[in-house]
Design brief:
- The structure holds four protein chains of four kinds.
- By secondary structure, chain A is α/β, with parallel strands linked by helices.
- Helix content of chain A is 28%, strand content 24%.
- Chain A has ten helices and twelve strands.
- Chain A has an eight-stranded mixed β-sheet with strand order 6-7-8-3-9-10-12-11, with helices on both faces.
- In chain A, α3 (117-127) crosses α4, α4 (133-146) crosses α5 (163-175) and α5 (163-175) packs parallel to α6.
- The relative contact order of chain A is 0.13.
- Chain B is an alpha+beta fold.
- Chain B folds into two domains: 59-150, no CATH class; 154-362, MetI-like (MetI-like fold, Orthogonal Bundle), CATH 1.10.3720.
- In chain B, strands 1-2-3 form a three-stranded antiparallel β-sheet, with no helix packed on it. In chain B, strands 4-5 form a two-stranded antiparallel sheet.
- The longest helix of chain B is centred in the middle third of the chain and has 37 residues, at 152-188.
- Chain B starts with a helix and ends with a helix.
- Chain C is an alpha/beta fold.
- Chain C is built from eleven helices and twelve strands.
- In chain C, a hairpin with a 2-residue loop joins β1 and β2 (22-35).
- Chain D has a domain at 98-324: MetI-like (MetI-like fold, Orthogonal Bundle).
- Chain D has helices at residues 2-28, 34-44, 50-64, 70-84, 97-132, 137-151, 154-167, 188-225, 228-235, 240-278, 283-292, 296-324, 326-330; strands at 89-90, 95-96.
- Chain D has 13 helices and two strands, in the order ααααββααααααααα.
- Classes of the chains: A alpha/beta, B alpha+beta, C alpha/beta, D mainly alpha.
- The interface between A and C is large, with 50 and 47 residues.
Chain lengths: 342, 367, 339, 331
């Protein structure tokens, strides 16, 4: 991968205050996102996985400034110029919206029930003041065709469509401004299995046709594996491992990744019989454990893990594969393939 | 696919508004209420046309005439067109009270589109055409007369103008104020929200009626009736708006976090755009429902204030003003029909409540 | 009763709902059976009727709009065979079975416990009702059950309220509650859908352990083929209210007969296999007021024939109990597959 | 829990101050004051000249502090209330306000409280019945009753009831006692006589509240009956009675309790207007005449005390809620 960097995130943090007591004083913070560092290169699809509450959705929303980050830089380089999304003012943000878009999880909540599909899809163009009404509508029609719907359905309302169709309308809307970078926030997790495949295929085709870069946020590891070139694994507000998709599944470097892979349900009666389960549950994100975040549930944890926080760093001889584990070079962790699948 | 595919497709090209209307049509009580409201509105708009008498004209000789019965069978038992008997006054020999007796020899058929007193239509031209009446020389007091012999029905019809107008305009005014305050406070949250919410809470800590009484008492007695009328509308709206403000705020708060609003924001929309094109249209049906349910509250409040003499001032009439003649128990006992304006209040409020309830069910079927 | 004995025979079960648009045939002549100690998986997408099938077995169809309109649910319990559909849903007989012989857990662990009562109260309720134990003994038993579902400090946890439990813990508490009276059958309606993968694995493992220990049969309802593959002995595939295929788990996964089952298996992404996913075109038909007389899957089926659009397919049964509701398996129609 | 309660109480204090200030503003809105009326009377009835009357009124203004700036007047008033329980002077009654309001406020609270209890109990029971017998004849009747209850203006209802009782049933109505008991010392007979009179205002004022509680309970219970935990309770094998009364009602009643705080204003305003018609010795008539006569301290004190009662009512409702729902306690 030698493509140029499109997005670089440095030390991104998003804390939510917790208020308590008689005077509603701020007594602490939920550290939803606690220092993310990564780069995304042009044209790739990066999967951001983790369990609920790990901060993946907050991360996505902080990058596109649906939430204002508490700290950190979000350097976005759609063309020659670089901007810091985290510091943009209103006007700059509006301009940059043309380059960075967002796809929402819930296909029912993300479309305004009182607008026709044509208006929904063409609305971003109207907001940005691009083209005439007629041009905007014809672009909306073309986009609907592109996602496998028909332009003749533009006059209909969202409630007349099924979940999968609605999600495709949402995708068409996010592409109307011809963005370079799209954050997909669990775009298929609300859909049925048979429809999920339709949407995944549409997303893949569009990536090719419009040369898009995706940040694909999801909890379903098989979906993420299917669509991503590289994968970031998040745990308790931090990235614990970054690797090429295939490499991550074959030879994970972080015990949490290993645990996740062991828990994936396999649709094969011979292989899927018994999954090895990670014990315990995720610690309170307002009061994360000392040392390594994961040590409370890690089967390999030592005193070092309990006292000292590991940094996310490349492996010996393989700087592209990063993990935040003190023992990443020593541990022999089992990949998904070890379960006999693939 | 199947034979009902056609129907499927037809069913599916409806907007939210049309869907609401379809559901509303199925709500029986709501439809009944709507029909009653339309009839009442028609009568109050065409008040002079529907009033058989001039509502301001006293006829001291006819004071406290009881309601006259409309008959369709004459003394011989034959069915005829509707008519009333003439009335003669007699004095009770024991108590020396005036009593009205039907004179079975004088039959006066009820005539439609008759001519009697003159009125002007929108100040454009004068006419004396009326919906119904009887021939000269007889009287038709369908719900009786008051203490100075004014036709109560005509007074009720004119009173409906004031009562319905106050309800409607007051509700519109309070809805505008309430939606604006609620919307602003919900959308911008933070300090603005704090201030508006505390103010709303403060107002809501006072029971509405005593507060309205106190505020109405502040309207100078020297003002002309029209001034008092406008003052009353303001007082009602000022006390009432908080309720809607709270509801709108809640709606706005929930819509503000909806994905479709966030999606619009990621397309670069500013707050104004989001409010105008996304939040208001989605709140609108809710606001209309609350508006419909506010009207009966205001009619009720107006009638209570006027009943106590703190609202509309004579010679202007409203249902509450008419009822204020019924405060003396002895008078009511002797002339119970003077309570009839209350029945009109009841029916109107009931109809509006039915309508509002139907609208709410139709607009928000899952709540 | 020994492992392998027949526990439940569901024959042509039909459950309908009255909706604003007309009659919704949520479950339409579905048949299956369940043996002692085994796990039956019912799989299908949202709206296929799998949850309503489970609720019909419990005689808990949402009232007053839904009702069981046909078929039998024969339960071969300790007191002989009874037809559950013949009982009124609030009858004493039915209530003796519910929670005692047949138990159920639900999809949303967050909402399936009553927020205003402690976990202990809710656990003891069923124990006191069915086992006629006093409060102290019931509490004892409740604590045992919590320990059994691997909740630490069970004694203290009994006095906690549901909102103080995490999602996984609540589902454990639900399982403890469901199993507190040693039921013959546990119906699990999407028990792990709302949970994370790692917690899902914990819960499924727990269910398997408890099944080994206690010997109850499980009906596992899910849309997740991975969960089915990991848990079920036999599988019923549902589509639009129909049971379209029924066989052992191996048969369904390795030699599926119904085109829907085949397509479903192909449409899930498999790790390590990066080829384009085969998607099923279109979406599930609206089941309100559909007129029968055709195969509901035909519009989405790659192999649909003329007859599929004209006549409802019957259910074909091979000799090994692998049934399929599809015209492709009719010898008169094709002769290829049915050969 | 404790922090929740303390927070609610601390929050009520500035609210009370605001309430008193607002009451004072409202009462001062009318142009002129009580002494303007006095001045006119002195001129027309006592035959004083205009100058004499004005001078006399001014002297009285100075005596009662009415010539001071508004804010100072308020400060004096609220200071008197807080430090001495002195609510000012009632010009109309020629007595300190505190001597006038307490008894009347007591009766108002008694009647409103009774109405509250009756309307909650009956309303909730009918609501439970309605929700569990959805769309049955009984439910339809209850629904129509509820609409009627919400739609009938309660002064009109009071009027009709009085008329029917007085002229068709021949019962003594109006007031809280029959004439012969008004001045009589307390005793069993007087108590019975009170009950005979009390039910009229209770019915008049309680009707709307009952209807409202019924609607709320019906809606909530129907909603709660669809919740998953109700199904869980059924799946346990509990009887329908237990499912409804233990599991569903307990959850559905919370909004009713929340509403109890909000319902108080309606009950009090209902009581006020009904009292004027039924001529009861409560706040209603007194407040009304104080307003009409610009007896500002009396009217202001009434308005403020009513609001204070509501603040207290809301606090109680909050506490009840916290007691009922562990999630609120948890904070």
């Amino acid at each position: 991968m030698s493509a140029k960097t499109i997005l670089e995130v440095r030390n991104l943090k998003k804390y939510f205050p917790i208020q308590k007591g008689v005077f509603r004083r701020v007594v602490g913070h939920v550290k939803a996102v606690d220092g993310l560092d990564f780069v995304i290169r042009e044209g790739e699809c990066v999967g951001l996985v983790g369990e609920s509450g790990c901060g993946k959705t907050t991360a996505g929303r902080s990058i596109i400034r649906l939430l204002d980050p508490t700290e950190g830089e979000v350097l976005f380089r759609p063309g020659e110029q670089e901007v810091d999304m985290a510091k943009l003012g209103k006007d700059g943000l509006k301009r940059i919206r043309q380059e960075m878009q967002f796809i929402f999880q819930d296909p029912f909540a993300s479309l305004n029930p009182r607008m026709t599909v044509g208006r929904i899809v063409s609305e971003p163009l109207k907001i940005q003041g691009i083209g005439t009404q007629k041009e905007r509508m014809s672009r909306a029609g073309a986009l609907l065709e592109k996602v496998g719907l028909s332009a003749s359905q533009m006059g209909r309302f969202p409630h007349e469509f099924s979940g999968g169709q609605r999600q495709r309308i949402g995708i068409a809307r996010s592409l109307s401004l011809n963005p370079r970078f799209v954050i997909c926030d669990e775009p298929v997790s609300a859909l049925d299995v048979s429809v999920q495949a339709q949407v995944l295929n549409v997303l893949k085709d569009l990536q090719q046709d419009f040369s898009l870069t995706y940040l694909f946020v999801a909890h379903d590891l098989s979906v993420v594996e299917h669509i991503s070139d590289r994968i970031f694994v998040m745990y308790l507000g931090k990235i614990v491992e970054i690797a090429d998709s295939q490499e991550l599944y074959e030879s994970p470097r972080h015990p949490y990744t290993e645990a996740l892979l062991k828990a994936i349900p396999i649709a094969d009666p011979k292989l899927g019989r018994r999954r090895e389960a990670l014990e315990g549950s995720v610690p309170d994100p307002s009061n994360p454990p000392d040392g390594c975040n994961f040590h409370t549930r890690c089967r390999y944890a030592t005193d070092l893990c309990r006292s000292e926080e590991p940094v996310l760093q490349g492996q010996q001889g393989n700087p592209e594969h990063q993990a935040s584990c003190h023992y990443q070079n020593e541990l022999q962790l089992a990949g998904y393939m070890a379960r006999g699948a693939g | 696919m199947s034979s009902n595919g056609q129907e499927e497709r037809q069913k599916k090209s409806l907007s939210q508004g049309q869907l609401i209307w379809r559901r509303f049509k199925r709500h029986k009580l709501g439809m009944i209420g709507t029909v009653v409201v339309i009839i009442l509105a028609t009568i109050s708009i065409g008040a002079p046309f529907f009033s058989p008498y001039d509502y301001t004209e006293p006829d001291f000789g006819q004071a406290y005439t009881p309601p006259q019965r409309v008959r369709i069978r004459d003394a011989e038992g034959n069915f005829t067109r509707p008519f009333v008997y003439g009335l003669t006054q007699e004095y009770d020999e024991v108590t020396w009270e005036r009593v009205y007796v039907e004179d079975k020899d004088e039959k006066y058929p009820i005539r439609f589109f008759t001519r009697s007193w003159e009125y002007s239509v929108l100040g454009l031209f004068d006419t004396d055409l009326h919906f119904f009446g009887v021939d000269e020389g007889a009287t038709i007091y369908l719900v009786g007369t008051d203490h100075i012999g004014r036709d109560l029905l005509s007074r009720i019809i004119y009173g409906s103008r004031v009562s319905l107008f106050i309800g409607g305009v007051g509700a519109l005014f309070s809805a505008t104020l309430g939606s604006f305050m609620g919307g602003v406070s919900g959308y911008f949250s933070g300090k603005v929200d704090m201030v508006v919410q505390r103010f709303v809470e403060l107002l809501q800590l006072f029971p509405q009626l005593p507060l309205m009484m106190a505020l109405s008492a502040a309207i100078p007695t020297t003002w002309p009736p029209l001034g008092v009328f406008i003052g009353v509308v303001f007082v009602l709206a000022l006390v009432q708006w908080t309720w809607l403000a709270r509801e709108v705020r809640g709606k706005v708060l929930s819509y503000r976090e909806e994905d479709f609003v966030l999606a619009t924001k990621t397309a670069g929309a500013n707050d104004l755009y989001v409010i105008v094109f996304h939040i208001i249209p989605n709140c609108l049906s809710h606001i209309i429902v609350v508006l419909t349910l506010t009207i009966p509250n205001l009619i009720l409040a107006e009638s209570a204030l006027s009943f106590l003499g703190l609202g509309i001032q004579p010679p202007m009439v409203s249902w509450g003003v008419l009822l204020s003649n019924a405060t003396n128990l002895q008078t009511v006992g002797e002339n119970p029909w003077i309570m009839l304006p209350g029945v009109f209040i009841l029916v109107t409020i009931l109809a509006l409540n039915f309508m509002g309830d139907g609208l709410r069910d139709a607009a928000d079927p899952y709540s | 009763m020994a492992k392998g004995d027949r526990l439940l025979d569901v024959v042509d079960l039909s459950t309908h709902f009255r909706t604003e648009e007309g009659i919704l045939r949520a479950v339409d002549r579905v048949s299956f059976h369940l043996d002692q100690g085994e796990t039956l998986g019912i799989v299908g997408e949202s709206g296929c009727g799998k949850s309503i099938t489970a609720k019909s077995v419990m005689n808990l169809v949402p009232q007053p709009r839904g009702s069981i309109v046909g078929g039998k649910v024969l339960y071969h319990g300790n007191n002989g065979t009874v037809d559950i559909t013949s009982y009124h849903h609030q009858s004493r007989e039915m209530r003796k079975i519910r929670g005692n012989e047949i138990s159920m857990i639900f999809q949303e662990p967050m909402t399936s416990l009553n927020p205003v009562f402690t976990i202990g109260d809710q656990l003891m309720e069923a124990i006191m009702l069915h086992q006629r134990l006093g409060r102290a003994q019931a509490r004892q038993r409740a604590a045992e059950m919590l320990a059994r579902v691997k909740i630490s400090n069970p004694e203290q946890r009994l006095d906690r309220y549901p909102h103080e439990f995490s999602g996984g813990m609540r589902q454990r508490a639900m399982i403890a509650m469901a199993l507190s009276c040693n039921p013959q059958i546990l119906i699990a309606d999407e028990p792990t859908t709302a949970l994370d993968v790692t917690v899902e694995a914990q819960i499924l493992n727990l269910m398997q352990d408890l099944q080994d220990e206690m010997g109850m049969a499980i009906i596992m309802i899910t849309h997740d083929l991975g969960v089915i593959a990991g848990m079920a002995d036999r599988v019923l595939v549902m589509y639009a209210g129909w049971g379209v295929e029924r066989a052992t788990t191996e048969q369904v996964f390795y030699t599926p007969k119904h085109p829907y089952a085949t397509a479903l298996l192909q449409s899930i992404p498999k790790i390590g296999v990066r080829k384009r996913l085969t998607s099923i075109p279109g979406s599930v038909p609206d089941l309100n007021n559909v007129e029968g007389g055709w195969c509901y899957f035909a519009p989405r089926c790659a192999e649909a024939m003329d007859i599929c659009r004209q006549k409802e397919p019957p259910t074909f049964d091979d000799d090994e109990g692998h049934t399929v509701k599809c015209w492709l398996w009719d010898k008169q129609q094709t002769g290829i597959k049915a050969g | 829990m404790l922090s929740y309660l303390i927070r609610r109480i601390l929050y009520a204090i500035p609210m009370l101050l605001l309430v008193s200030f607002f009451s004072f503003i409202v009462i001062n809105l009318p142009p002129g004051d009580y002494l303007t009326t006095v001045q006119q009377q002195l001129q027309s009835q006592a035959g004083m000249s205009r100058d004499q009357a004005v001078a006399m009124a001014e002297r009285m203004r100075a005596r009662y502090g009415l010539d001071q700036p508004f804010v100072l007047q308020y400060a004096n008033w609220i200071g008197g209330i807080v430090t001495r329980g002195d609510f000012g002077y009632s010009f109309q009654h020629n007595r300190p306000v505190s001597e006038v309001i307490w008894v009347r406020l007591g009766w108002t609270l008694l009647i409103a409280g009774l109405c509250h209890a009756v309307s909650v109990i009956i309303g909730v029971l009918i609501g439970i019945f309605s929700a569990t017998h959805k769309y049955s004849i009984g439910d339809n009747i209850a629904t129509v009753f509820a609409f009627l209850g919400l739609s009938i203006p309660n002064f009109f209802f009071a009027l009709v009831l009085m008329y029917l009782l007085a002229f068709h049933a021949g019962v003594h109505v109006g007031g809280l006692f029959s004439p012969e008991y008004v001045l009589a010392p307390w005793g069993w007979d007087k108590f019975v006589d009170l009950l005979k009179h009390l039910w009229v205002p209770v019915v008049v004022v309680g009707l709307a509240g009952t209807a409202q509680n019924m609607r709320i309970m019906r809606g909530n219970l129907m909603d709660v009956l669809n919740r998953q935990y109700v199904e869980t309770a059924r799946a346990k094998g509990l009887s329908e009675r237990k499912v409804i009364y233990k599991h569903a009602v307990r959850n559905a009643i919370q909004p009713v309790i929340m509403y109890m705080g909000m319902a108080l204003p309606f009950l009090i305003q209902g009581e006020i207007i009904a009292s004027i018609i039924l001529n009861l010795p409560t706040t209603g008539p007194s407040f009304y005449y104080a307003l009409v006569n610009q007896d500002m301290y009396l009217a202001g004190s009434f308005l403020m005390m009513i609001a204070v009662v509501l603040v207290a009512g809301n606090l109680l409702a909050d506490f009840a809620l916290a007691w009922l729902d562990p999630r609120v306690r948890y904070d």
